[in-house]
Amino acid sequence: MAVSSQDFFVIKAKENGVNVIGLTRGTDTRFHHSEKLDKGEVMIAQFTEHTSAVKVRGKAVIQTSHGIIDTED
Ligand code: TRP
After folding, report:
1. Residue 32 C-alpha to ligand 1 middle, in angstroms?
2. 20: Cβ below 6 Å to ligand 1?
3. Residue 21 lies inside a defined structural domain of this protein
4. Is 2 domain-assigned?
5. Could you tell me if residue 25 is inside a domain?
6. Residue 69 to residue 27: CA distance in whole angstroms
């Protein structure tokens, strides 16, 4: 699938230095991208042919089609 038709998810940083880490799809699960967000910055992203999982490190609000998740302190 060249262009992803997946829903977007939104991550809003509640502090400086929040990391949004993309993990690869397939048998080899590894970090392939790390994006640093400062307080108030928003990242809008999708799961793609390259990205099957996302790890969020730091205080943030994450909005997905499954609901809104607020990371703990
Ligand atoms: N090049 C990555 C991809 O197409 C970009 C990306 C999409 C990404 N979604 C992400 C990076 C989520 C980090 C987190 O898969």
Report:
1. 8
2. yes
3. yes
4. no
5. yes
6. 27
The number of beta carbons lying within 10 Å of the beta carbon of residue 43 is 19
In which residue are the tokens 């390259």 written?
50
User: Distance (Å, rounded) from C-alpha 27 to C-alpha 7?
Assistant: 23
Is this model's pTM higher than 0.90 or not? Answer: yes
pLDDT tens digit string along 16-67?
Answer: 999 999 999 999 999 999 999 999 999 999 999 999 999 999 999 999 999 9
Q: In this structure, what CATH number is given to the domain that contains residue 58?
A: 2.60.40.50
Structurally, how many domains does the chain consist of?
Answer: 1
Minimal CA–CA distance to 24: which of 54, 58, 44?
A: 54
Q: What are the distances in angstroms from CA 60 to CA 5, 12, 23, 30, 39?
A: 25, 5, 18, 22, 9
Q: Which domain holds residue 45?
A: 8-70
Q: Which atom of ligand 1 is nearest to the CA of 50?
A: 15
